[in-house]
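Support reply, case 0932

Customer input (verbatim):
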Amino acid sequence: MKLEKVFSIHDFRLKFGEGSSPNVYDLVRYGPLSKRPLYGLSNIGVDMYRGILVLCRNEKKNLAEMLVKDFKDGYSENRKIFPGLSAALRKKFEIDVAYFSEYDPNKIFDVFENSRSIRDTFPVIVLPRCAKGDYGSIYYRTKAVFLKHEVPSQIVTEELFQSRDSYRWSLLSIAVQIYAKMGGVPYGLDRSVVSPRSLQPSDTLVAVMGLGISTHPQRRKRGVGFITVYDDQGVWNFMDFEILSIDKKEEMSNDIARLLERSIEAIVRYGSKKNNVIVIHYSGKEVGSREEESINNAMQTLSLVGKNVFVHVLKIRDSDIVVGLKDSPHKTREGVATWYPPIGAVFKLKSGVYLMTSTGYFMRGDNKIGSNIHIGLPTAMIISRHREIEINPLDSLGDIDLLSTVFGLMRLNYVDVSHPVSRDPVTVRYSRTIAWIVLRLADIMGSDLKLQKLSRLQNTMWFL
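Our regenerated output:
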C-alpha cells in the first residue's frame, strides 16, 4: 500500500459562535454556532423551547434527580467538565422531572403531554439500555411515538449512571445532542471540506449528501431509502426519505431516483448558485447487491436540468485490514508503543480505491497525543470512487479532494464529543438508526406517513 495523505484534526478546526478551535470543549468558551437552523424552517430553533422535562420510571427517581441537578448546576465534582445546560448552551431553561410507571412508549408520552406544553418543552427520557440491533426495543418504539407528534427526544440509559467516569464525560455530549435536536447548530467546521479549483467560489455551492438504504428487519420485502444533506462546512441542511419495496427492483430504482432527484433539486433551488457540486456518500454496511444495483440504475436515469450540477459518488465500507505503525509516537501509560497509526492516514489500494484509518492516534489541541480507541485494534474504512455513475464530475476534484469530505465529516461527532474524530462520517454513521425509526413511524402511521406532514423532522437532527 502507498501512503497518499494524512488528514489532521488541525486541518479541520471547529467553528463556534464566537471563535474556532480544534477542541470541541471550547464550545463552552465560545458558545454554539447558531440557535436556529441555517437552512430550511425559520420558525424552529432553541429559542422556541422554554423547558426541559426529564422523564423517568418511578423506581429510578434517584437517577432523574441526579441528572436534573447536574443539568441545572453543572457536574458537581468538576464544573469545568460540564458547567450545566444553561452555561454550556447559553440559553436559560426551566428544568423539571416527571415520572412514569412502566416502560410503555404511549404511556410515557401521555405523562409528557400532561406535564408540560409539548410545543415548547424538550423531553429527556431515562430508559434501560438495549442492543442497537434490537428493532423491537423500547428505544426505537419510544423515539417513533414521540416523533409521530413531531417531538424529538433525548434518550439517556439507566446504565450510564453506573459509571461515574462515563456519566461525567457524557454530559456535554447529551447537551450538544439536545441543542441539535432543538434545531440549533452546536458547531461546524471553519473551512470547506472541499474547494473546486476550477469554479468561482462566490458562485459555487458545495453539498455533501448521505444516501442510505435499509431493509425492515422483520419484513424483508420492505425498506426505506433516505437522504441526509450537509453543507460544505458540515452544517445540517435537511433530510428526505422514501418507503421502498425491496423485492421489486425496478420500482425500488425508480423510488431511489425520485428521492435523489428531489433532494438534488432542493439543494440547487435553495442555494441559488450557478454551480452546484454534490458529493454523495453511501455505506456498504446496509446496502446489498440488489440495493447497490438500484442506486446505479437510479443515478443513470437522473435528469438534472437548469444550473450546472456536478455529482461525485463515494462508497464507504468497513475494512478488516489492520494498519500498524512501528514507530508510532502513541504509547500506553506504561510507556509501551501501541503501534497505533495516525487517524486520517490514506493509503491507495488501487485506482479509485483507498484505505483510510478511522481510529488511532491524533495530536490534541495542547500538542499532547491522544487516541480514540477504547479497546482493541485500529479500524479503517475502504472508500471507493464510483466514476461510472457520476454525473458531470469535475476534473479539478481529484480523489484526495473528495476523500477530504469523508474526514471532514468525521469531525462532527455530536454523540460523543470526548472523541474528536468519529469512526465514520456523519453522512453514513446513523444509517440504521434513521432507517429503523422511520420504519417504526411507518408501522405506526401506515400509508399516512409523509415527511411533509412531519416538517420539523426535515430540519432537525432528531436521529442523534
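We compared this against your earlier run and they match. Two observations from our side: The mean pLDDT is 89. DSSP finds twelve helices and 18 strands in the chain. Please reopen the case if you see a mismatch on your end.
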